Amino acid sequence: MALLELRDLIKRYPSPEGGTNVVLDVPELSIGDGEHVALEGASGSGKTTLLHIVAGILTPDSGSVSLAGHELSSLSESKVDRVRAEHIGYVFQTFNLLQGYTALENVLLGMAFGDGQDTRRAQDLLDRVGIADKANHLPGQLSVGQQQRVAIARAVANRPSLLLADEPTGNLDADMAQQALTLLREACEEVGAAILLVSHDPAVLGAFDERRSLADINRAARVGGVS
Amino acid sequence: MRTVSMIARKSLARHKLSTSVTAGSLALACGLVIGVFSIQEQSYQAFTTGAPGFDAVLGARGSQLQLVMNSVLHLDTSPGNIPYTAYTDMRDDPRVKLAVPYAVGDNFEGYRVVGTTPELLTEFELSDGVGYQIMQGGRVFSDLKMEAVVGSQVARKTGLRVGSHLHFEHGVEEEMGHDHDDEYIVVGILEPTNTPADKVSWVPLEGMYRLDGHVLRGGGQIYTPKPDEDIPDEVKEVSAVMLAFKSPQAGFQFSQQVNGGKEMTLAWPIARAMAQLFDKIGWAHKVLSLVAYLVCVVGAASILASLYNAMNERRREFAILRALGARRSTVFGAILTESTAIAALGGLFGILVYFIVFTIAAEVIRAEAGIVLDIWQTHPSMWMAPLGVTVLGALAGIVPAMKAYRTDVATHLVAHS
Question: Which chain B residues are within 8 Å of A100, Cβ to Cβ?
Fold first, then answer.
């Protein structure tokens, strides 16, 4: 059984005209354990919506999402939160570090809602991404590259089954982007996490053996129904 | 729980100013509530048991409360004089254990001077077996000499010592009249009693009669005492007679007898008259309580407002936390913990505010009424008010917590693409 299985997924958003637009229409998508998959998608192709649905942050209008044996649509919201806390790691384009928290605390929060906070492991993770000496720095005191490293450390802090990455290098220059990608993949390999990355950057996509086009997966994108 | 407290702690640290102001306003409210109830309780106890040893006061026809205020608390003006024979009649009555006359009308630097008999200092008991104590090196005044025994507060504030010479001023308050030429000498200073007696100078009754400028009207005509001539009892007057009875029945009998007439008033029991005072000023307590409660509500409302206003800027934070796996209840709990922590801080510092309020109020009451309040005496409000404020703060956190609870993750995390 695949780690992630999406079937007949439909997601609509209200349109400005008062109707609805279909943003996602995914007949099928599956990712196996430890698999690294890159989805190519242009801006507005429903990338973020897809990742949010996989993470249980958004609910599809129809279809099913099965993650690590859990059918999300059949679970209560708090159980979905639990599945997310235990199985999902998330790296955002804008990093989404919590501003009032140090690098170490950000990583601690990455594991807080799963197995609980483990300061030693959080410090090891920061060491692993090369910023152990910045553990007590606030995000505002870190460079963009350092912030992304914290975000990666936080994303794998809960030893996720699946790491979702939404344009994870969008704010980095080419060199830093490659470093971040390497780090991301290494970190996921260490914890055995699969990766579902979405990007429009060919350089990023080129780093993945398994590449798919979101336009192939999402029928809504093909027919131009995305808002 | 660790994570919830971490989120709350971080927010409190990030919003130091609003946290401090809000907790400060609650501390003020909490301190006021404790102060109002504690001071009222202690004042009531002190005033209504302020004349231990005496059961009643006999004085001129008029208000019992004014009589008690004048003779027990040494406040207010005397309602008038009564014949000296009223004192001797009481003194000689077998139902009376002790009768002590008071004559008021002079002051020393604003502190009241009371003419009395040595029995007040030798036989009167403040509590069982314990009377006024004169500090080492002092003694009771002689009945017929210009000698004074001064209360501890008078000595402390005016610097009087044994051997000090002083002139009294006419009138019960300073600046009311002229200084008497006659010179008194301090022969004793009383140990503190924490009663209104601490702010009184005691002199012989006979000496009061013979002060220059004093006249007696007890015989219906003006009589000016002459040196080396006994003053007839029938011309003497006293302001009040302090009475201790041998039995409660005697008090009842005297009350019926005296108050049934038209010449004098017997305030018996003294505590009841004092309780009337508190009945009269009960509205002030209610107003103060109301103000304190309102400040509490305002403090709680300020928690609500400051947290609620911060919700907009914190929605992204909550969305990130939710994306990391935090449940709605975790976010809700963090805001509730935050509001409760602010209120608990307020309650804690409220006790400190209470001590400050109490110290100031107690000093004023001590200076004005001679009553000493005990700052360490516990009162249920000392735990009920901080607890109440904390609960109020927790309740005030519900509305912003609900707003945080309802935060839409996808909307506030990042716009969908």
Answer: 10-11, 13-14, 317
Phi, psi of A168 (to 5 degrees): -65, -15
- Report the candidate in B83, B113, B88, B84 with the shortest Cα–Cα distance to residue B99: B88
CATH number at residue A22: 3.40.50.300
pLDDT digits (tens, 9 = 90+) for A64-106: 999 999 999 899 999 999 999 999 999 988 888 998 899 999 9
Would strands B237-238 and A62-67 be described as parallel, antiparallel, or unpaired?
A: unpaired
Provide the 3-class DSSP secondary structure of residue B148: strand
| Yes or no, beta carbons of B413 and A88 under 8 Å apart | no
Q: What angle is formed at CA B270 by the lines to CA B266 and CA B272, rounded to 5 degrees?
A: 105
CA of A121 vs chain B CAs: smallest distance (Å): 16
User: Which residues span the domain enclosing A209?
Assistant: 4-222
Residue pair A45/A220 in contact (Cβ under 8 Å)? The answer is: no
- Annotate B188-218 with b (16+ C-beta within 10 A) or e (fewer): bbbebbbbbbbbbbbbbbbbbbbbeebebeb
Task: Locate B14 and state its tokens.
Answer: 């990030």
Averaged pLDDT for residues B82-88: 92
Dist CA B74 CA B140 (whole Å): 21
Q: Establish if A227 belongs to a structural domain.
A: no
CA distance, residue A47 to nearest chain B CA (Å): 6
- Whether residue A114 and residue B323 make contact (CB cut-off 8 A), yes or no, is no
Kindly report the nearest CA distance between residue B325 and chain A, in angstroms: 4
Contact A204, A47 (CB under 8 A): no
Contact of B64 with B265, CB cutoff 8 Å: yes
* Cβ–Cβ < 8 Å for A47, A214: yes
Of B3, B10, B326, the CB nearest to A100: B10
Would you give the end-to-end CA distance of chain B in angstroms? 35
Domain map (residue ranges) of chain B: 2-47+282-413, 56-268
Give A84's contacts in chain B (Cβ within 8 Å): 323-325
B3–A117 CB contact, under 8 Å: yes
pLDDT of residue B414: 61
User: Which of A49, A100, A113 shows the shortest C-beta gap to B416?
Assistant: A49
